[in-house]
Amino acid sequence: MTLELIKDPVPWPNGARCAVAITFDIDTDSVLHLEFPDRAKDLIGTNSWLKYDEIAIPRILDIYRHFDIKQTFYYPAWCMEHYPHLVDMILKDGHEIAAHGYLHENPNQMSRERQEYWMDKQVAVIEKMTGEKPRGWRGPLYNASGDSPELCAAQGMIYDATLMGDDIPHIMRTKAGDMIGLPSHWAMDDWPHFTHNMDFNYMMPIKSPDEAFNVFRSEFEAMYKYRGLLVTVWHPFVTGRLARADRMVEWIEEMKNKGDVWFARMDDIARHCQACIADGSWTPRVQEFPYYTKRIDEYEEETPLAAE
User: Fold this and answer.
1) pLDDT tens, 225-280?
2) Distance of CA 181 to the CA centre of its chain
3) What does the alpha-carbon distance between residue 169 and residue 8 come to, in Å, rounded to a whole number?
4) CATH of domain 13-307
5) How far apart, in whole angstroms, are the C-alpha atoms of residue 243 and residue 109?
6) Cβ–Cβ < 8 Å for 216, 232
7) pTM above 0.90?
8) Domain residue ranges in the chain
C-alpha cells in the first residue's frame, strides 16, 4: 500500500499528477543599488554579473516558447522601469509579471506605513506597464512581515508566493480577505547552489548543473508521486547562464515526457485552486495571518527567562 504523504492534494486539471511553475525573480541590479547606494556606480564587475539578465531573459523566453509553456516572472518595479524592453518581451509571449518589491526592499525593516508606500508604488508601476494590477507577490528574499499578507490582499492580489509552510496550496486568511498561498522552499532556489559574489559576501561553493538539478529533480519526483506543487525560485543571471540553461532544457523535457504534468503560470494555479474550492472538489488548509501580533507571553521582560 502506498503511503499518502500529502493527505489533501489539489485535483489538478485533466488528471495531472502535479503542477509545475518554473518561476524567475528578475532582480537584476536593484539589489546592488539597495545594498550599496553610494558605491554601486563603481562596482562594475558585480554590475556586469547582475546585468546578465539581459542575455538570460531572452534565452529563458526561447526555452519556454520551445516547450509551449507560460510561466511567471517576479519583477521589482524599479527593474521594470529601467529595463522596459525585457518587460515587453515577457508580456508579448503571454507570461505573468507579478510583484516583487520596488527596489527589492525588506518589509521587516520598515514601519507599516513605509510598507504600504512601497506596495502602492510597485503595484502602480506594474499596472502602468502591463495594463493590469499584479495578481500575486513574492517577498524579496522571502522577506515578509506580519503586515505583508494583509497589504497584498488589500491590493486585490489573489495569491502569495513567499512562504514555505506547505507542499501544496492553502488559504492565507487576512483581515483584508483570503489569498491562495503557493509555497516553495530553499531546495528549489538556485541561490544556495550557484551564487558566489564577494561584494555581497555570498561565498557558496559553486555546484555543477547536474548536482543542482539532482536536487531539483528529487523535489519534482516527490511532488509527482504525491500530487503536490513544485515552484522554482530562480534568477535569470544565475540559472540563465549557459550550462545551467542547457540543463534546464533537459529537465523540462524530462518532465514534459511524463505527459501528466501541468505547467502553469502562478495566477492560473491560484485561479484553479479557487475554482476547486468553489465547486467543492477540494477543501484547503486555512492559516490565519499574521502568525503572531506580539512577542510571546513566555518571553515578557518581567519573566525570569527574559532576565537571564
Assistant:
1) 999 999 999 999 999 999 999 999 999 999 999 999 999 999 999 999 999 999 99
2) 11
3) 10
4) 3.20.20.370
5) 37
6) yes
7) yes
8) 13-307
Q: Position 219: which residue type?
A: E
Q: Whose grid coordinates read 499528477?
A: 17
Copy the grid coordinates of residue 295.
Answer: 512577542
Q: CA dihedral in degrees (257, 70, 213, 262; nearest 10)? A: -50
- In this model, does residue 54 exceed pLDDT 70? yes
Parallel, antiparallel, or unpaired: how do β-strands 202-203 and 229-234 relate?
unpaired
- The alpha carbon of 29 is separated from its chain's Cα centroid by a whole number of angstroms, namely 18
Q: Where are the beta strands (DSSP E) in the chain?
A: 18-25, 72-75, 96-99, 136-137, 159-160, 170-174, 177-181, 196-197, 202-203, 229-234, 261-263, 286-288
The grid coordinates of residue 289 equal 495571518
Dihedral sign for Cα 183, 185, 187, 193, please: positive
The secondary element (H helix, E strand) that includes residue 131 is none
**How does the average pLDDT of the chain come out, rounded?**
96
Q: What is the pLDDT of residue 305?
A: 56
Residue 249 near residue 22 (C-beta atoms within 8 A): no
C-alpha cell at 59: 534565452
What count of other Cβ atoms lies within 10 Å of the Cβ of residue 156?
A: 13
Q: Would you say the C-alpha torsion 193, 198, 203, 206 has a positive or negative sign?
A: positive
C-alpha cell at 168: 501544496
- pLDDT the model gives residue 203: 86
Q: Is the peptide bond before 140 cis (omega within 30 degrees of 0)?
A: no
Report whether pLDDT(303) > 70.
no
Please provide the distance, in angstroms rounded to a whole number, between the alpha carbons at the two ends of the chain. 51
